[in-house]
Amino acid sequence: MQEYLNALQTVLDEGVPSDDRTGTGTISHFGLQCRYDLRQGFPLVTTKKLHLRSIIHELLWFLAGDTNITYLKDNGVRIWDEWADENGDLGPVYGHQWRHFPQVKNNTFVGEIDQIQTLLDAIKTNPSSRRHIVSAWNPGDVDDMALPPCHTLWQVRVQGDTMHMQLYQRSADMFLGVPFNIASYALLLEMLAHVTGYKAGNFIHTMGDAHIYSNHMDQVATQLARKPHEAPRLIINRQVSSLFDFKYDDFTFENYNPDAAIKAPVAV
Ligand SMILES: Nc1nc(=O)c2c([nH]1)NC[C@@H]1CN(c3ccc(C(=O)N[C@@H](CCC(=O)O)C(=O)O)cc3)CN21
Ligand SMILES: O=c1ccn([C@H]2C[C@H](O)[C@@H](COP(=O)(O)O)O2)c(=O)[nH]1
Q: Which residues bind dUMP (predicted)?
């Protein structure tokens, strides 16, 4: 995961001090891209221990179209707690837009678009398409979301027997959020490739505002002083035919030997 550590270093070296919504303050570098080749191993940060449980359950929760944190809480995942209302709702965030994107024609609501099913169908019928896109950014709904989507839009590209993916992330918390985001999208690419019969290739992570919060500086220094370990391998334990049938226990990360976790406060 040298690629991720290099990106952290770039933000440190080239970032400029910036105000931000949370009042914490950041150094921010606008426009950054990393490329992870999943054929070389699974891109889990090894210079601190990641809470894989949160990453896997959050992705299954997005794919289920869920936007209430009850499922996450029931599974010991707390990363969305600060943003939920008293009923556990986050508004029409990722899960809603991925599975139930409102379709409007002639200014009238005509139904919902299941962007994930549409993507799966299109990969089958028209693999070489350059239009395999899923968008979580819905301008009409942004005001009703607890947090407007950070991982905003992603594209899948099939080339030969290999499937690649690129994510555009508008805002990237380099220390806390980004290791989760890389793992989550790499896992999504592996799952998509598995159910459609392709090999998983590159995950390209394009970031808009890539920032380090002012209260993460010591943690970043600790992390950059560590040497990355060998990349783990993802094992999918059974043949799954529908993307929506994956369960938490279907995934094993072999050879994941990270350094100790590094605690950091999340900016709300
Ligand atoms: N400032 C900020 N950064 C984020 O990364 C972020 C948000 N806000 N808001 C929405 C989601 C929630 N995400 C989060 C929230 C918390 C952690 C976090 O505290 N991670 C710790 C422990 C995680 C755990 O126990 O599951 C870590 O060490 O990685 C990570 C991602 C990503 N997002
Ligand atoms: O998946 C995620 C979700 C959130 N973030 C970070 C990026 C920012 O630090 C905050 C969001 O604040 P905005 O003011 O809405 O940009 O959350 C992330 O890195 N990854």
A: 21, 130-131, 170-173, 181, 211-213
